[in-house]
Amino acid sequence: MDKKEIVFIDANIFLELILNDAKAENCSILFNKIKNQDILAKTSDFIVYTCLLQIQFKLKSIKKAQDFILFINELKGLEILRPSLRELYDSTRFSEEYKLDFDDSLVIACMKNNDLDLLVSLDKDFNKVPFIRRQDP
Predict the structure, then answer these.
(1) 1 is a domain residue
(2) Strand, helix or coil for residue 132
(3) What are the residues whose beta carbons fall under 8 Å from the beta carbon of 54, sequence distance 6 or more?
(4) Mean pLDDT by 10 residues, the chain (137 residues)
């Protein structure tokens, strides 16, 4: 990953770390690079909300939700995008065209609108989108 290139971070990368799943260590390394601004990254507020909902559902912990918000705030190399109505609309097209769920199609719309093509995600469904380069953390 070229440190000058901006990457988009999918929800499953945050959740991998939060839930201490199999690739949590790799995600931790990635987030340390983002925190130190060695890598610049973007994600969407929708992804942040998704993570908070998963924390509430799986961990049932307000403290973990608060810790996640503080963690996000410490990632100095991370910009949180707010999808526009245009991106929401475009996501419906991408959902139909690539047979993706709303979450994934919104990621694509945000990336396309922000001239991003590198996605860090464990979701291999993105591999069928020709203008997205997906990579594991």
Answers:
(1) no
(2) coil
(3) 11, 15, 18, 19
(4) 81 96 96 95 98 95 96 97 97 96 97 97 96 96
Domain tally, the chain: 1
Q: Is residue 69 part of a domain?
A: yes
How many CB atoms neighbour CB 77 within 10 A?
18
Q: For the full predicted model, state whether its pTM sits above 0.90.
A: yes
- Pairwise CA distance, residues 84 & 113, whole Å: 9
Q: Cα separation of 55 and 10, whole Å?
A: 15
Q: Are 113 and 134 in contact (CB under 8 A)?
A: no
Q: CATH number of the domain at 30, please.
A: 3.40.50.1010
Domain span including residue 31: 6-135
